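Input chain follows. Return structure tokens only.
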Amino acid sequence: MTNKTYSYSEDDLIQLSSLQHIVFCPRQCALIYIEQVWSENLFTAEGRLMHDKVDTANRESRGKIRIEYGVPLRSLRLGLIGKADVVEFHKRDGRMWQPFPVEYKRGKPKIDDSDKVQLCAQAICLEEMLNVEISEGALFYGQTRRREDVVFDNALRMETEETARKVHELIASGITPKAEYSAKCKKCSLLELCLPKVSRKASKYLLTVIEEE
């Protein structure tokens, strides 16, 4: 684990889900958490319905596994607050219940670490709240209908802590990064509000005018 420590008050806490947003796109993160902009599309609607279904489920017990849904999370060290879709408690050594966070996603595994960072942040919150060590969790993807195990190694933990720091700095700055169009923009629910192609053309036009003058 990293030796870096951060100390935040209750008033400083930011949404844990913002870590996933900033890894996916810093501008998207700023639009949501600084400018308070949100728009839903097919992808976000499907994701919301999946999360709502999980959050309204009841507590379950399956042999040596106890399952809790919609578990509140908080970390004063990273300055995060949120909720875990599912936390499984696996019985160890006949008495100890080991937390195992599971996050539900509508699509399929991503190329970047956005989902893994979000899940790792949930684990760090649980570790702080329950005074335990959590070595792994899982991501369940609706499109593939499979669970992908995630190991919370030092590299992922450091990336998660650094991402949390970046989100705090971004929100504190109050500055929304400029738009940069890429293939992933097509799936973003904020595409029509962000207008990355228009912003890029406008920037090129202004640069041309300045150079001509």
